[in-house]
Design brief:
Structural class: mainly alpha
Number of strands: 0
Number of helices: 4
Shape: elongated
Strand content: under 5%
Distance between the termini: 24 Å
């Protein structure tokens, strides 16, 4: 994946995933049906894995 080889692109994508993953936190997932909750867990876990990151890693703030 090209993003994983570009440090700035990786940082931006990880921040994007972290922002979107707020929608997949366990408190919010509890209000979803089982299939949707699992799909969201898998989606964010797989996205992080594709970028070579651990599923529990949060993106660090972007410094300008």
């Amino acid at each position: 994946m090209r993003i994983a080889t570009d440090p700035l692109a990786l940082k931006v994508k990880l921040a994007d995933i972290a922002d979107n993953a707020d929608n997949a936190d366990e408190t919010r997932l509890a209000s979803q049906d089982v299939a949707t909750a699992q799909r969201l867990r898998d989606k964010y876990r797989d996205a992080l894995a594709a970028l070579g990151q651990e599923a529990t890693r949060a993106a660090s703030p972007i410094k300008h």
